[in-house]
Amino acid sequence: VQICSLGRRVASALVGQQTLGACRELVSASVVATLYGYRRYCASSSSAVQLILPEALKLLPLYALSLLKGAGLKDNVKPDDRAAWITQMGCLPCSRVGPLLYPRLLPLTRLLAEAGEHNATAPDGNTFEGLTLSSESLESGGVFLLEN
């Protein structure tokens, strides 16, 4: 929810004629303020060197980085692409903002093999887990789908 709210604030700031630099600063300041607030009010008894984050906040820095590197805040982006990004951030439900910022990489060869074994459904009835977006996750000869 935090990254959804942050993305919408950035999109509205871009529409409100803020500079890209000011929007980037908004993202960084918001993440720092969130983590500082968590440390100050929720994790004051933990070590000063180590901050143990709850599951809800663990991916916030990653999503913020992908927000900074996305089409909305890059310098050399076509105006149409930036406008499309602003529209998506403002209109998509929060459940779709996460995959927009950090898409899942689905191994189709593995999913097809598992689907054949489980009558075309995931073993637990939920969606399949995606892979980490890194070269280590890729397999030679594999087929992958990037969900974004």
From TrEMBL:
<dbReference type="Pfam" id="PF04815">
    <property type="entry name" value="Sec23_helical"/>
</dbReference>
<dbReference type="GO" id="GO:0030127">
    <property type="term" value="C:COPII vesicle coat"/>
</dbReference>
<dbReference type="InterPro" id="IPR050550">
    <property type="entry name" value="SEC23_SEC24_subfamily"/>
</dbReference>
<dbReference type="GO" id="GO:0006886">
    <property type="term" value="P:intracellular protein transport"/>
</dbReference>
<dbReference type="GO" id="GO:0008270">
    <property type="term" value="F:zinc ion binding"/>
</dbReference>
<dbReference type="InterPro" id="IPR006900">
    <property type="entry name" value="Sec23/24_helical_dom"/>
</dbReference>
<dbReference type="InterPro" id="IPR036175">
    <property type="entry name" value="Sec23/24_helical_dom_sf"/>
</dbReference>
<protein>
    <submittedName>
        <fullName>Protein transport protein Sec24-like CEF</fullName>
    </submittedName>
</protein>
<feature type="domain" description="Sec23/Sec24 helical">
    <location>
        <begin position="4"/>
        <end position="96"/>
    </location>
</feature>
<dbReference type="GO" id="GO:0000149">
    <property type="term" value="F:SNARE binding"/>
</dbReference>
<dbReference type="GO" id="GO:0070971">
    <property type="term" value="C:endoplasmic reticulum exit site"/>
</dbReference>
<dbReference type="GO" id="GO:0090110">
    <property type="term" value="P:COPII-coated vesicle cargo loading"/>
</dbReference>
